[in-house]
């Protein structure tokens, strides 16, 4: 599914090279639930951006479903982001003027899906996250946990190959955060591939595998029974 080989990401700071990622090799299989765990500045966000095709490595090889991402055009990368990867962010990134249903429909509009089919798929995605009774509510009418559920539904609606979640509980209280992580567990049990980026070991422990990163290097990779 996801194969990274000898990935480097290097930034120039004056005359000095700063290694955000330093020789990272990582494989994530289909239907794995993997947490990438590290403190601020460890390189986990840079790694997420490369996995999500939001950034490219300085050197190394990235294969997504067997396709070498490094060689793709900007348009091809945009298509992968819209169809192969479902993004979930800490800030929810919902459009305030749109209802929950309309927010979830957005990726389908970009794909050119007709209106009746968009409605159907968006409703199904919201039902999966327990929001069938909030279809016409706007973000300000929803709690933080409900807004994140809308964001999860939006990520699911295109049936992506991988769900990429960046600190998805960072703006939530502990109860709402636990509820969101239970949704991720359910999605994993339904066959989703999930990559979770976090600094919090208690959140990482929901995953089935934890990859620890520090100073741009993978320092530990362990499966959880």
Automatic annotation (TrEMBL):
Residues 2-224 form the ABC transporter domain. Pfam families: ABC_tran. The keyword Nucleotide-binding applies. Keywords: ATP-binding, Nucleotide-binding, Transport. One of its GO terms (molecular function) is ATP binding. InterPro entries: AAA+_ATPase, ABC_transporter-like_ATP-bd, ABC_transporter-like_CS, MacB-like_ATP-bd, P-loop_NTPase. SUPFAM superfamilies: P-loop containing nucleoside triphosphate hydrolases. CDD domains: ABC_MJ0796_LolCDE_FtsE. The keyword Nucleotide-binding applies. Belongs to the ABC transporter superfamily. PANTHER family: CELL DIVISION ATP-BINDING PROTEIN FTSE, LIPOPROTEIN-RELEASING SYSTEM ATP-BINDING PROTEIN LOLD. This is ABC transporter ATP-binding protein.
């Amino acid at each position: 599914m996801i194969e990274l080989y000898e990935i480097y990401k290097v930034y120039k700071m004056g005359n000095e090279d700063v290694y955000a990622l330093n020789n990272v090799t990582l494989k994530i299989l289909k239907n794995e639930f993997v947490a990438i765990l590290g403190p601020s500045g460890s390189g986990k966000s840079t790694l997420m951006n490369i996995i999500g095709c939001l950034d490219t490595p300085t050197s190394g090889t990235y294969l997504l479903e067997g396709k070498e991402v490094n060689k793709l055009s900007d348009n091809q990368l945009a298509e992968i982001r819209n169809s192969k990867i479902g993004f979930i962010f800490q800030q929810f990134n919902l459009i305030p003027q749109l209802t929950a249903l309309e927010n979830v429909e957005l990726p389908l509009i970009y794909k050119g899906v007709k209106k009746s089919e968009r409605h159907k798929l968006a409703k199904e995605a919201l039902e999966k996250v327990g929001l069938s009774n909030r279809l016409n509510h706007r973000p300000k009418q929803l709690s933080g946990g409900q807004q994140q559920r809308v964001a999860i539904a939006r990520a699911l609606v295109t049936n992506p190959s991988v769900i990429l979640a960046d600190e998805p509980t960072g703006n939530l209280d502990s109860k709402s955060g636990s509820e969101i992580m239970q949704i991720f567990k359910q999605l994993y049990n339904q066959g989703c591939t999930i990559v979770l980026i976090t600094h919090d070991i208690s959140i990482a422990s929901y995953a089935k595998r934890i990859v620890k990163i520090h100073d741009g290097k993978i320092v530990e990779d362990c499966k959880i029974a």
